[in-house]
Amino acid sequence: MSSTAPTALIAGASRTLGLGLAAEYARRGRHVVGTVRGDTRTGLHDLADASDGRVTVEQLDINEPEQINALRDRLAGRSLDLLFLNAGITRGDLSIADVPTDMFTDLMVTNALGPMLVAEALRPLVGGTARADHRRGNRQTADSVIPGNSHEQPASNNYVTRCQEYCT
Question: What's the rounded mean pLDDT across residues 118-144?
Fold first, then answer.
């Protein structure tokens, strides 16, 4: 793999959507850093084993600020061109009237606050290539904007979680 290959970090890459994205980005030549919660072997570990060095596994619980900071420190000096925050939880299929307050709080901390903390901590690693060029016809972009973002600023100067898919 070329050292100039683009690098994607996918938080929550142990299974389903995150694992699928990690596999596809690696297939397309990107280096992928995928995160898993806990130390149980996952599909991401199998993908990393078969990836010829294109996929690496990092441990991260997005609810643990010390783990977020440790990941940032381990990745210091690297440049990310894509940060995909997929980590999250669900607690079943309850109607809103049946969701207890403590469950709702857990969901919001994990699915809303956690990704914002990760984005803030890792944003210095996201290079200028993460900015979307909306004039290119062969590129689809979906932004999940965190308060304070302006699309007129470079990605390294704002809080933005960017998911980019290059169509080939």
Answer: 56
